[in-house]
Specification:
The chain has 352 residues and is of the alpha+beta class. The protein contains eleven helices and 17 strands.
């Protein structure tokens, strides 16, 4: 991966921006795609929409969601500890002991999520699973008044861990779900810039996916594309206890994952596979019988319907601070989206 692209990815995944508070990521996306787009705008929901060859036909929309799971401050007690509610789906056991950033009006405030030490739990308490509402954030300040001068109710909170490289072109970060897709949306524009394409390309960094696919729904209505490609992570099943019978055999390093099923237009699936094979891009196929739980759900059902596909990157340990993926898979996902778009023509039939 080229150095500038890797640095962009690193900044994306280290930035804190849970659902409803995506502005810092949207600013990064807007700045990065400006040289490769004819226009970039933010809509009333907060979606960032970059257009390349906007009058081209057919119109195609790429969607990757900018939000991550996180927390919101709900209460400050008399001693100055913060209690919080979840944004998105958390396993409470993973939350215990994490370092966090509280994003306040005066800047980031570091803290840690606390729980009584095991020495102070009785035998029955040790057997119980932690519950989020019983945990607290310690920011090092004493008393409600001192904390309230820095922290407001509703301030967002995100896990504080850095991007890091592992062996074999793997990387680990807190929010590859789904900043890696924001990266694909941006890099696809870079790969297409300067090429002669028929399609009008709308690359969208969507908002509020983790709480109900909300940004993709409104962006789809506004852009009104004929074709849509959602980009997201999917569960790798190449580690202990992952059940291939439930999800399939999906491996990190095996190439981008092309989804097949009811949420996917069969012509889009076929042309994604064709593009991968013609460009010698390794790929994997995942079968999803119903909705995919991604922006593809909202996109497919826009207005009278959209010919929708889903391109994913295999991820280990989803919704944890240590999500792992292959940078090679990520690069090949960008290549696949660009190759698919380069082959679009106005007279193609997308009817199943």
């Amino acid at each position: 991966m080229r150095e500038e692209s890797l640095e962009f990815l690193k900044v994306l995944v280290e930035t804190g921006a849970p659902s409803g508070y995506e502005q810092p990521v949207q600013s990064l996306f807007r700045d990065y795609v400006q040289p490769y787009s004819e226009s970039v705008r933010i809509d009333v929901m907060g979606n960032a929409i970059a257009a390349l060859n906007p009058d081209g036909q057919p119109r195609v929309m790429l969607a990757g969601h900018a939000d991550e799971i996180g927390f919101l401050v709900r209460h400050i007690n008399d001693e100055g500890y913060l209690y919080f509610g979840p944004v998105g789906g958390w396993d409470a056991e993973i939350v215990v002991g994490q370092r966090v950033t509280v994003h306040t009006r005066s800047g980031p405030l570091r803290g840690t999520i606390g729980k009584r030490a095991i020495h102070l739990l009785d035998e029955e308490e040790r057997r119980k699973k932690s519950e989020l509402h019983t945990l607290w954030i310690d920011v090092g300040l004493s008393g409600r008044e001192a904390v309230a001068q820095r922290v407001a109710i509703g301030d967002p909170v995100t896990i504080h861990v850095p991007f890091d490289r592992l062996a074999n072109e793997l990387a680990v970060a807190k929010s590859f779900d789904n900043r890696m897709a924001v990266f694909v949306c941006a890099e696809t524009l870079r790969l297409l810039h300067g090429k002669k394409i028929a399609a009008g390309v709308y690359s969208v960094s969507t908002v509020q996916e983790e709480i109900g696919l909300r940004g993709a729904r409104t962006a789809s209505f506004g852009v009104d594309p004929q074709i849509g490609i959602a980009i997201d992570v999917t569960h790798a099943t190449d580690y202990p206890d992952a059940d291939k019978r439930k999800v399939g055999d999906i491996r990190i390093g095996g190439g981008p994952v092309i989804t097949r099923g009811a949420n996917i237009n069969p012509r889009v699936f076929e042309r994604l596979v064709q593009a991968a094979e013609e460009e010698s891009i390794p790929y994997q196929v995942e079968a999803t019988p119903g909705g995919t739980g991604t922006d593809a759900n909202a996109m497919q059902l826009n207005k009278a319907g959209m010919a929708t596909g889903l391109v994913s990157v295999a991820l280990r340990y989803m919704h944890t601070p240590c999500e792992v993926l292959s940078l090679t898979d990520l690069e090949n996902g960008c290549r696949l989206c660009a190759a698919f778009i380069e082959r679009l023509r106005a007279d193609q039939d997308w009817t199943p």
